[in-house]
From TrEMBL, chain A:
Native organism: Caldalkalibacillus uzonensis
The organism's place on the tree of life at top rank: Bacteria
This protein's name: Altronate dehydratase
Classification via InterPro entries: SAF_UxaA/GarD (IPR044144), UxaA_altronate/galactarate_dh (IPR052172)
CDD domains with a match to the protein in the record: SAF_AH_GD (cd11613)
Source taxonomy: Bacteria, Bacillati, Bacillota, Bacilli, Bacillales
Automatic annotation (TrEMBL), chain B:
Protein name per UniProt: Altronate dehydratase large subunit
Stored InterPro entries: GD_AH_C (IPR048332), GD_AH_second (IPR007392), UxaA_altronate/galactarate_dh (IPR052172)
Protein keywords: Lyase
D-galactarate/Altronate dehydratase second domain boundaries: 7-134
Domain D-galactarate/Altronate dehydratase C-terminal: 144-386
Family membership: Belongs to the UxaA family.
MF terms (GO), sorted A to Z: altronate dehydratase activity
Length: 103, 389
């Protein structure tokens, strides 16, 4: 994904929300812990502080999500949390699980 | 009447968005003759393929059905079929399969014509006669419900599932809502979404068929990975997928599925068969770009919408392939190959909804005759009939 990493060195730390039901957004640029992120849901814009470093294309929690609660992206469940996460935290394979297709 | 486009009305009631003469070989042996005929007559396209000889059973049936459907396709005003003469699927069967469309149709058989040169001469004469007649037909205004688009993703990167596919899904939904049709495929990229697609099925029968088709594809993949000598090729989700931010195979498949928007699923079609009705359909096919596109065109799609994050130049003979990228860097780098820059969502210039509308307008423009970049550059490598393993 190195090619994609180079896309934007923009100052705005944009987060895209794909579906209104989602509890995660997608980072549209590399984000550093403590950055103020701008969340876009269609025309609605709000702000949030990142709690972790989040690479381009990765997921950031829009709300607190408890252990074993579902993670929603595209308005659908993509897995559940192995542990609780706070709003602004990084969600990936280290703290999310999915029973399907994991061998 | 809803939105409209300018298309070519055919005798069987179907509507083409191009008005070309197709030169189709019934067997791979006649491919060069087909190519030579097409090269001598402007307004023709040709189909080279490596099959049609010594195939049996379902494998041959799929080849036969697909070739017939290509010949029946509404983008073609006429067809010249070129056979060798000894093939099991005879050129006359291919002609018979196309004939009920009422379009201009001729047959050349190399072994009957005498030799390659005589067959080329005969084919060129037929093709030019057809082209003179076709060139006089005018476009007319038709309702957008006469349009079928195909959705196929290739050379994906992280931006495909994030922006290009969801934006295309918005355009697809808009078409389907107005009575048009859209074909989603690549079952290898839909594992884990069968329950979602089944939930959107128009009835229980379709819901069952969706699940069966995706489970069958998963079995096929598992059988192949079980026998793989290379352990790195056993995974259904790659290291690059994880690096790009995908945390599960379901998340990856959802990104792929989003090309089909949120419309109800009207049915599952088998490879080489036409759509039954209107709406969003699922085509049973693996993920290879050429196999997918060929099955979609055989099903009747007049145009293919093709998101690509990393960029691919490919096209299909006689069927426009609209390239969309969600990666602004790819758009700038491969400008002569990419039609739509959905990367404007990444750069913050536009919303998904705005790019969805942009894609929808492009669909109408291309249906009315606007040439896409893959057509202008002559790309035609996506014709590739699937085989039964």
């Amino acid at each position: 994904m190195s090619q994609v990493h180079l896309i934007m060195n923009q100052k705005e730390k944009l987060i895209l929300v794909i579906d209104p039901k989602d509890n995660v957004g997608v980072a549209l640029t590399d984000i550093r812990e403590g950055d103020t992120c701008i969340i876009r849901r269609g025309d609605i814009v709000e702000q949030m502080t990142a709690l972790d470093n989040i690479p381009f294309g990765h997921k950031i929690a829009l709300t607190n999500v408890e252990k074993d609660e579902p993670v929603y992206k595209y308005g659908e469940e993509i897995g559940k949390m192995k542990e609780g996460i706070k709003r602004g935290g990084w969600i990936h394979s280290h703290n999310m699980y999915c029973e399907r297709g994991m061998g | 009447m809803g939105d409209t486009f300018m298309g070519y009305r055919r005798k069987d009631g179907s509507v083409g968005i191009r008005n070309l003469i197709a030169i189709i070989p019934s067997v791979f042996c006649s491919s060069k003759v087909v190519e030579r005929i097409a090269c001598q007559v402007p307004g023709t396209v040709y189909f080279r393929h490596p099959v049609g000889c010594s195939q049996v059973g379902e494998d041959l049936e799929i080849t036969a059905k697909t070739l017939i459907q290509i010949g029946r396709h509404p983008n073609f005003a006429g067809v010249v079929v070129v056979g060798l003469g000894c093939e099991r699927f005879s050129p006359y069967e291919l002609v018979e399969g196309i004939s009920s469309t009422g379009k201009m149709l001729q047959t050349v058989v190399i072994q009957e014509a005498g030799d390659s040169l005589k067959a080329i001469e005969e084919g060129v004469r037929y093709a030019r006669e057809m082209q003179q007649i076709a060139s006089r037909q005018q476009r007319e205004e038709v309702d957008v419900s006469e349009l079928t688009i195909a959705l196929n993703c290739g050379g994906a990167d992280a931006t495909s599932g994030m922006v290009a596919n969801p934006a295309l899904g918005i355009a697809s939904d808009k078409l389907v809502a107005q009575g048009g049709s859209s074909i989603l495929s690549e079952l290898t990229e839909l594992l884990g979404t069968e329950h979602i697609l089944a939930r959107r099925a128009v009835n229980d029968q379709v819901a069952r068929e969706i699940k069966e088709a995706i489970y069958r594809m998963e079995e096929r993949l598992k059988n192949q990975t079980a026998n793989s000598s290379n352990p790195n090729r056993k995974h259904l989700i790659s290291k690059g997928n994880y690096d790009g931010g995908l945390s599960s195979v379901v998340e990856k498949s959802l990104g792929s599925m989003k090309k089909g928007g949120n419309a109800p699923v009207s049915g599952v079609i088998r490879y080489g068969e036409p759509l039954k009705g209107k709406g969003l359909f699922l085509l049973d096919s693996p993920g290879h770009d050429g196999e997918v596109a060929t099955g979609q065109v055989a099903a009747g799609a007049q145009m293919i919408l093709f998101p690509t994050g990393r960029g691919t130049p490919t096209g299909f003979p006689g069927v426009p392939v609209v390239k969309i990228t969600g990666n602004p860097k790819t758009y700038n780098k491969m400008n002569e190959n990419i039609d739509i820059n959905a990367g404007t969502v990444i750069t913050g210039e536009k919303t998904l909804e705005e790019v969805g509308e942009e894609i929808y307008q492009e669909i109408l423009d291309v249906a009315s005759g606007k040439m896409v970049k893959s057509e202008i550059l002559g790309h035609d490598e996506l014709f590739c009939i699937t085989r039964v393993p």
